[in-house]
Design brief:
9 helices; Flagellin; 8 strands; extended; four-stranded antiparallel beta sheet; Immunoglobulin-like; 2 domains
């Protein structure tokens, strides 16, 4: 945190480097023999002060706005990082409890649900930081009743969104792997701004990338060639709203009570999958945080004494606006010095 404050203070000091100087080459030239009218000279000085004050104010406001935006973004990153860390630590505890001979499924499931509630401010249902995924709050839909990933002969399918008045067709190659099938489906669904992924249960998840998510609230019509989807009249299929990763895990833990070891292994695998997703999200988030930290780190070093001298000139000769801006800049220089000393 000290390093962050130091960098922010450096940016604030950098903003004073570009303050217009009162000392210009013209000011150093001799004015003897000048025929400029005294009144005109005063008007010119006043106008110069007003122009300088306007430039300083505009520049200062822009820099303050930029710094405030960076600080806000960084604080959101830190909050999301803390939430991801909390989720990961709790998942480690849950994994240990699952492997105990005696465990209370209700207690574990409630802990996971509480974890989902506590971290929902920073993370979406799929445990991705909201600060990095501002447009992922739209609902996703799971296709449970039709298995399009089955390794069967080739088939061409049609999918109709009745409320949108749109339809798409896609071809599934014969005995293709899930990755190849996903690529084929996604090429076609691009026409309706929708992307398809796989969840932990290897089910297709439809992710609308625009405001057309409401089109999936009602049954979607599928028609095929009788291989994966019955031929003939379109079959209405109601997709299920995707449950968040933690809530899905809580439901799986509830179902683990008094079940055989095979189901217990499935729950453990689901925990490991969620842990892997959290680790990946942490890596992405820290990369974004490094970009914020390094912003402005390539700025050239400045002479603090020269800046202080220029501020003194503004304080003595500037108008009210210039003096106020200079006082604020002086305070920032003092804070920068204090932070640098504390950092040592």
């Amino acid at each position: 945190m000290i390093n962050l404050l130091n960098k922010v203070s450096d940016n604030l000091v950098n903003s004073t480097k570009h303050l217009p100087s009162l000392v210009t080459p013209a000011a150093n030239q001799s004015t003897k023999g000048s025929s400029v009218n005294v009144v005109d000279s005063k008007l010119t000085t006043t106008e110069r002060h007003k122009q300088r004050n306007g430039n300083v104010t505009a520049s200062g406001l822009a820099r303050w706005s930029g710094l405030n935006s960076n600080q806000l973004t960084f604080s959101q990153y830190k909050s999301a990082e803390n939430s991801l860390g909390t989720v990961y630590r709790e998942l480690v505890n849950i994994s240990t409890m699952l492997n105990n001979k005696v465990n209370n499924a209700d207690v574990m499931a409630n802990r996971v649900r509480q974890l989902d509630h506590v971290t929902s401010k920073d993370l979406n249902g799929q445990l991705q930081p909201k600060v990095l995924n501002r447009h992922t709050e739209r609902p996703n839909y799971v296709l449970n009743s039709v298995n399009l990933l089955a390794k069967k002969p080739a088939e061409t399918l049609s999918m109709v969104l009745p409320s949108a008045g749109k339809s798409v067709s896609f071809h599934i190659p014969a005995y293709a792997e899930p990755k190849e099938i996903l690529m084929s489906i996604n090429r076609s669904l691009a026409a309706v701004d929708t992307h398809v992924t796989l969840n932990a249960e290897q089910k297709l998840v439809f992710n609308p990338t625009s405001d057309n998510s409401r089109f999936f609230n009602e049954p979607v019509l599928f028609s095929g060639e009788g291989i994966r989807v019955p031929a003939g009249n379109p079959v209405p299929v109601q997709m299920q709203l995707q449950v968040g990763a933690l809530l899905s895990l809580a439901d799986a833990i509830d179902g683990n009570a008094n079940k055989k070891n095979g189901h217990k292994q499935d729950v453990n695998e689901q925990v490991r999958q969620v842990q892997a997703d959290v680790r990946h999200a942490i890596v992405q988030l820290r990369a974004a945080m490094d970009q914020v930290r390094n912003k402005g780190s390539h700025s050239a070093p400045i002479d603090i004494s020269a800046v202080a001298s220029e501020l003194s000139a503004l304080l003595s000769d500037g108008d009210f606006g210039s003096r106020l801006t200079s006082l604020l800049a002086q305070a920032n220089i003092s804070r920068n010095t204090a932070v640098a000393l504390l950092n040592k």
